[in-house]
Amino acid sequence: MEVLEFMASKLNLLRAKAAEASKFVAKHGSAYYKQSLEQNKQYIQEPPTVEKCQLLGNQLFYTRLASIPGRYEAFWKELDYVKHLWRNRQELKTEDVGIAALFGLECYAWFCLGEIIARGFKITGYDV
Predict the structure, then answer these.
(1) Residue 116, class by beta-carbon neighbours within 10 Å (0-12 exposed, 13-18 middle, 19+ buried)?
(2) Of 50, 53, 98, 101, whose Cβ has the fewest other Cβ atoms within 10 Å?
(3) How far is CA 29 from CA 23, 26, 36, 51, in A?
(4) Is the pTM of this model over 0.85?
């Protein structure tokens, strides 16, 4: 019974917060919308129609598609640079090795954090 009362109180709190947010948006939403459009008018394409949006979407997609060969080449250049560093690892400075180690540690930490989030913030993965 306590759980139901607790959930009901949280639901009422959530309703109150939603109503408050709704009032805020109703009062200030229009002004924010107009201000945002005014500040970013250089990005607005004329005429602002559905057809224009579809054209821009297609342009973005095919431009990204056309940029793949350049990104592919850049990837292989980076990989060649890493291979060169690995072959000449005796010449590396301590700072460079430290930066690389910190970068690897940061990537590993982000991976672990993503795994924890995916499991619903459970550290072990087991229900306790």
Answers:
(1) middle
(2) 50
(3) 9, 6, 10, 27
(4) no
